[in-house]
Design goal:
The radius of gyration is 56 Å and the shape is rod-shaped. It contains one helix and no strands. It is mainly α.
């Protein structure tokens, strides 16, 4: 039989002695700490992956916003050019309206003077008609 000190090397341990594999039958702080570290590392890895995905989403969103702002900038530039053209067209229209008003005033003056001419011609025709009716008929 073996001694009470457990130097014989059986499968069970007695008195806290270790077997040849180094396991003393109790979960030591070191083994429990390794399990906790593995769980912690797994959680940290999950957290890092989720953060990485979130950052990639933010990056995609920023890239899309950059494209949208670039399109907006192009549209604003085009609208600016159109506004300048509209302003030039309005100025040209005002000049054309002023010229048309001047021409209409000239036409009104010529029509007014022509009215007097027409009245004079009508008066002469009536006087000739009265003359021919009185003297010829």
């Amino acid at each position: 039989m073996g001694s009470a000190g457990g130097g014989g090397g059986g499968g069970f341990l007695q008195g806290g002695t270790r077997d040849a594999g180094g396991f003393d039958g109790h979960i030591t702080g070191n083994n429990y700490g390794n399990a906790q570290n593995q769980v912690l590392l797994a959680n940290q890895d999950q957290y890092m992956n989720s953060r990485s995905e979130a950052l990639q989403n933010v990056e995609r969103t920023i890239t899309e916003l950059g494209g949208i702002f670039q399109q907006l900038s192009t549209m604003v530039a085009e609208q600016g050019e159109m506004a300048v053209r509209i302003d030039e067209n309005v100025e040209q229209s005002v000049a054309n309206v002023d010229a048309a008003q001047t021409q209409l005033l000239k036409y009104l003056n010529s029509v007014s003077s022509n009215r007097w001419l027409i009245m004079k011609i009508f008066g002469v025709l009536i006087s000739f008609l009265v003359f021919f009716i009185v003297f010829i008929a």
